[in-house]
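Materials and Methods. Structural model of Metallo-dependent hydrolase. The 334-residue sequence of Metallo-dependent hydrolase from Wolfiporia cocos was retrieved and submitted for structure prediction as follows.
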Amino acid sequence: MGKNKKSSVPGEEHLHLPVHAALASSETRPPIVDTHTHLVSTFSAYRGKYKQGKYETIYDFVRGLYRDRNVEAIVDVWCEAPVQRSWRELADSALSEEGRRDKWCGVQYWFVMGVHPHEASQYTDEVEKDILEAMAHPRCVGWGETGLDYHYDNSPRDIQQTVFIRQLQQAVRLGKPLTIHTREAEEDTERILKEHVPKEHKIHIHCYTDSPEWAARMLDHFPNLFIGITGVITYSTNLNTSSVVRQMSRPGSQPPAPLRILLETDAPFMVPANLYGALTDVKGRLPLCHTGMIPWTAEFVAAVANEGGESAQAWSVERVVLEARDNARRMYGV
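The predicted structure was written out as tokens:
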């Protein structure tokens, strides 16, 4: 049984994705920005699944999989308590042009830091001190992910709320953009954000799966709020995210309504389900997600945004990628 399970994992060569068909023919392929990835966890997942894998370091992994895929930038997310000390090595390695060229093959490395609601019980003055130290780093572009998660309740809800408010107050004081995790906690997340965050503050609701009604209220109240779209939009079990995109795009409107979205992976989680149409020789499912998969999420977003629209099809994969890239600049300055 163990052997069969092992053999069901596709070979690591399948992690090397082709250029998305819709972008391969483009004269100028649009730059890809992954606004939410967990690079250490992704590399750890890779080494766990491919113990004899050829990539021995995070830098090897990025150079091997992202080179020639037009990945312009990633926003790496550190959200553990206590804070992982390895953040500084990665951040420092991206300070110089030489480091970005040699270690990151030109990919711009940025990061955010906070404490995930799962680990709110572990939030201490010492943890906060470490996060504040990271906030001063030139490659740090935001505070997060932080928020509320009432699906798992890994930390008591009252503690989640207290720690969420504490982090929001620090981020607002510093003027740092916010990366928000919220799941099945719409009422409390909305109340807390509206009470503690100025309307003009920059907010990224990461990996959106909540109701389209809640998204509409938040987008209306916070003019600099963006909805994070991961590969979960492609899953048949999730209808909410598509509804939000459909609601934003107002199919058939002329000119097409802007999409206040950010493209992200939340890697190593949530491989886009529509990816496998381009990987016809793969048997089984890829064991991890990575930034090179973003064009397939964009493809799904474009299809949803075009539903009910004119035959001209206003949204293309390239246009979605470019819109999300512009939004990433507005949100994080990257």
